[in-house]
Amino acid sequence: MPVVTDIKQQKRDSSRYSVFIDGAYAFGLDGLDFSASSLRIGQNLTIAEIEDWQSRSEDGKAYNAAVHYLSYRQRSQAEVRKYLKGKDYNDDTVELTIDRLIELGMIDDAAFASSWISDRMRLKPRSRFKLVAELREKGIGADIIEASLSEVSRDDELEALRGIIAKKRRSYDSEAKLVNYLGSLGYNYDLIKEAVRDETT
After folding, report:
1. How many domains does the structure of the chain reveal?
2. Do 128 and 189 fall into the same domain?
3. What is the mean pLDDT of each run of 10 residues along the chain (201 residues)?
4. How many CB atoms sit inside 10 A of residue 15's CB?
5. Is the pTM of this model over 0.70?
6. Contact indicator for 95, 126 with CB cutoff of 8 Å
7. Rounded to whole angstroms, how far apart are CA atoms 68 and 161?
8. Do residues 58 and 16 touch, judged by C-beta distance below 8 A?
9. Could you list the residue range(s) of the whole structural domain that residue 184 is in?
10. For residues 18 and 8, is the Cβ–Cβ distance under 8 A?
């Protein structure tokens, strides 16, 4: 049967306690809940009891809130962290929740970046420059962005440009204005010239 192996006062919030089951962090309780809990080191707990404490703890509430937030779409670490802090969960609870979600595979910034790029290129193509800006805004690290962008080839960008030109050509009465518009989307000038030349030949 699972056993309480340690109970520690949290460093960032001394009014809260971390409870460890079989050597691993299980849940956190505020001082009042801990005092009323009668939990002690060496105490045996059933799986049902552990799950009940987890759901009742602040960490459990934060976890459930995060899972609900993730149910709408995939999110980055930074998005989940900002969401939980906006709900006034303390830093320890937020980071413990993030760690738990990462361990469970529910947060994965590399998978998020790859999916984001794939969806953008399929539904509304972006330049590499715009993709980098969007991923940075989502809090994705530079190394992950660079690795994920390896999936976007020059031909992919060129194809996206051709599609945009086909849709926007009639909106511009001169090639110069069209080129300026495409440049505002973050596309490389040489790539723009090639795509415009292809469209006119």
Report:
1. 3
2. yes
3. 93 85 90 86 93 82 91 96 93 89 95 92 82 94 92 83 82 82 85 77 56
4. 12
5. no
6. no
7. 37
8. yes
9. 109-200
10. yes
